[in-house]
Design goal:
The complex is a heterodimer of chains A (202) and B (174).
Chain A lengths: L1 H19 L2 H38 L2 H16 L8 H14 L3 H18 L8 H11 L7 H9 L8 H37 L1
Chain B lengths: L1 H22 L4 H35 L2 H15 L7 H6 L4 H15 L4 H12 L3 H12 L7 H24 L1
Helix pairs in contact in B: 2-5, 5-6, 6-8
Classes of the chains: A mainly alpha (202), B mainly alpha (174).
Protein name (chain B): Spore maturation protein B
Keywords (chain B): Membrane, Transmembrane, Transmembrane helix
Pfam family, one (chain B): Gate
């Protein structure tokens, strides 16, 4: 889908420019903006190196595991199908903790491991289980405390308060996570309702 | 107040991590360097994504097509207190994180990071993740073919995240 948007933006832009008489501007902007992207990445390196370095210390000090313990009571309720001490629960918790710290790279492999364990629990079927859908909903609403990359970009464009958006992001993330959990529950009960209905017909 | 709170969060987190790491006898500097190397490769790997999307959007904007599109849908959106310029970001956010990072960057650059739109774009980019990416990576890696309600749930969650960003930014910065 991203292909269509990407090609669409450029193609519509070029065709529109031909009729709108802005082809000169378009021609200029192609090279200017490519140049700008490279400068932007160079400025991103600084904050990404610093932050991922810090987070590696946090990981090594066991802060991620601590955080996981903190969230465990909540998560056993969110994933009623997973036994408390099953490895799947451990991976889900560490994936969640890594996301909170904005460690996308660390979160992904943990998430994949969590999925593998959940698949085992589901009898190795190629169907998404209830827990998998809940896990996905949690991941897409992404609980992030520090949106590192966006702060770096704000700094690059001379923001007077690059971190001003941390609070608004935390609020928004909190609401979208609650929303994701509610939606997930709603669809689950709807599926259950349909199953009961099918059974009663039979 | 918001600025003050936000200003404290990061330095305090850093202080805590450094002191706690030392207390736990972590070889802090070595680990910092190790993690930092990952940051370099992450930034480099972002380059093609960001460059491609930024060029494409710049063409769209420079041609005048963006303004035409925005003024087309503006009446409905202003009625709902939604700045029309945010629409391209809201549309790309659920599809690709790196692509939407390009869109958000474009908004921050043209409108300024401290403008209302700049803050809104920052919040929106930071507060939701990309359903399609998570879905493809996680389900792809373990071979789940029947996704059930997963896509619907994910996209609706994204939608809520976008609405939440709009409302919160309106309340905090509007």
């Amino acid at each position: 889908m991203v292909h269509i948007i990407w090609v669409g933006l450029a193609a519509v832009g070029i065709v529109y420019a031909m009729f709108n008489g802005t082809i000169e501007e378009v021609n200029e902007v192609i090279f200017e903006s490519a140049n700008e992207a490279v400068y932007l990445i160079i400025s991103l390196v600084s904050i990404l190196v610093f932050w991922l370095g810090m987070m590696r210390i946090a990981e090594e000090a066991g802060l991620l595991t601590k955080l996981a313990q903190l969230f465990k009571p909540l998560f056993t309720r969110l994933f009623p199908d997973i036994p408390h001490d099953h490895p799947a629960m451990g991976y889900i918790l560490s994936n969640f903790s890594a996301n909170i710290f904005g460690l996308g790279n660390a979160a992904t492999p943990l998430g994949i491991k969590a999925m593998k364990e959940m698949k085992k629990l589901n009898g190795d079927k190629d169907e998404a289980s209830r827990s998998m859908i809940t896990f996905l909903a949690l991941n897409t609403s992404s609980v992030t405390l520090i949106p590192t990359t966006i702060i770096a970009i704000r700094m690059q464009y001379d923001s007077i308060a690059p971190t001003e958006i941390v609070i608004s992001t935390i609020f928004a993330t909190f609401i979208s996570t609650i929303g994701a959990i509610l939606i997930d529950r709603y669809f689950y009960y709807r599926r259950q309702g349909r199953l009961d209905y099918d059974h009663s017909i039979k | 107040m918001i600025i003050l709170l936000s200003n404290y969060i990061i330095p305090l987190m850093i202080l805590f991590v450094l002191l706690y790491g030392t207390y736990k006898k972590v070889p802090t500097y070595e680990k910092f360097v190790e993690g930092g190397k990952e940051g370099v490769s992450l930034a480099i790997s972002l380059l093609p994504f960001l460059l491609g999307m930024i060029v494409s959007i710049s063409i769209f904007r420079a041609s005048g097509a963006m303004d035409a599109f925005v003024s087309l849908i503006a009446p409905v959106l202003t009625f709902l207190h939604v700045p029309p310029d945010i629409v391209p970001l809201a549309l790309t956010r659920p599809i690709s994180g790196t692509a939407s990072l390009g869109v958000a960057t474009d908004i921050i650059k043209t409108e300024g990071p401290d403008s209302y739109l700049g803050k809104l774009a920052s919040t929106m980019q930071g507060s939701t993740d990309t359903t399609l990416y998570v879905l493809t990576v996680y389900f792809g890696a373990v071979g789940i073919k029947k996704m059930g309600d997963a896509l619907k749930v994910g996209l609706l969650a994204d939608f809520i995240g976008i609405i939440a960003s709009l409302v919160i930014c309106y309340l905090l910065f509007g």
